Amino acid sequence: MGTYSSATRQGAYEPFELQVSRGQVDGHTGIEIFGFTPNIANTASGPMWEGQTQSGGLYVYPSSAAPLVLVSTSASDTTALSVRIEGCGANFVALTETIALNGTTNVTTTNSFLRINAMYVTNGTNVGVITAKISSTTYAQINAGVGQTQMSIYTVPAGYTFYLSYTQYDAAIGFTSSAFMTAQEYNKDNVSGALTLTHQTVFVQKQETPFTAPIAHTEKTDIQFCVKSSSGGPLTCSMYAGGILIKNPD
Predict the structure, then answer these.
(1) What's the gap between Cα 167 and its chain centre?
(2) Which is nearest to 156 in space by CA: 216, 68, 236?
(3) What pTM was estimated for this model as a whole?
(4) Residue range 95-146, pLDDT digits in tens
(5) pLDDT at 191
(6) Given its phi and psi angles, is residue 16 left (phi above 0), alpha (psi -120 to 50 degrees) or beta?
(7) Could you give the CA distance from residue 237 to residue 230 in angstroms, rounded to a whole number?
(8) What share of the chain is helix, strand, coil (3-state, %, to 5)?
(9) CA–CA separation, 116 vs 100, rounded Å?
């Protein structure tokens, strides 16, 4: 058994991260996680995504892999518009599928998804709100005109390790207020079943963490980057997390 080398391929003159983005380092993929919501309050900590409410709370995942039903609120999002879904199937195996919309008529994926990491409109601008559901539960949503989900959650696929190198949280809260935000990272290890609060910090307006050494997140781990206000709401918050996904030895 070997490991995938993280050595640069083009010499020191080209940054390693750029080589990863260009696909020049085998088994390495850059991961960018974006979250946004106007609904943060002080009830419970929760991730930033389109389905978040002021009640907060952790994102609830599907209990088993199932086909997704996608639909738009606008008839203008015709079959000319496609959505790419990135996530995991059964046993957390990495899975992607691109599906054409049909306006306000439901369309169903060929594959069954256990997790959704992101959805993107691939060839245009969505006029309506696009939802991805299993039964009556919405697990991902693209808001009108945005073109992609904005979810501060990520699940590490089977056979990979995710190395988190940077996080940033931003909140529309004033320095003159006594209120503050609490940022938290929750990890669920779906091999052992352990749920851990990996780190937390408080901030006003902005918080950045460039990790001295990237933090390893093992395969099949659910990651949720969460926030909560100390008082009041609703508040608008966003977050960004970046790192590298590396294939485990065969």
Answers:
(1) 13
(2) 216
(3) 0.92
(4) 999 999 999 999 999 999 999 999 999 999 999 999 999 999 999 999 999 9
(5) 93
(6) alpha
(7) 14
(8) 5, 50, 45
(9) 17
Cβ proximity of 191 and 126 under 8 Å? no
Structure tokens of 198?
Answer: 């990996």
SS3 38: strand
Q: Are 28 and 20 in contact (CB under 8 A)?
A: yes
Cβ atoms 106, 71 nearer than 8 A? yes
- 135: exposed, middle or buried (Cβ count in 10 Å: 0-12, 13-18, 19+): exposed
Helices (H) and strands (E) counted in the chain, each on its own, are 1, 16
- How many CB atoms neighbour CB 206 within 10 A? 11
| Residue 229 structure tokens | 């206000």
Closest listed residue to residue 216, CA positions, set 194, 246, 185, 241: 246
Q: Is 245 helix (H, G, I), strand (E, B) or coil?
A: strand
**Cβ-contact 27, 143 below 8 angstroms:** no
Report yes or no: 139 and 117 within 8 Å, Cβ to Cβ: no
CA-based R_g, the chain, Å: 19
Q: What are phi and psi of 146, to 5 degrees?
A: -85, -40
Mean pLDDT of the chain: 93
Contact between 220 and 156 (Cβ < 8 Å)? yes
| Residue whose entry in the numeric block shows the structure tokens 């409410």 | 53
**Side chain identity at residue 216, one-letter code:** A
Q: Phi/psi at 71 (nearest 5 deg)?
A: -155, 150
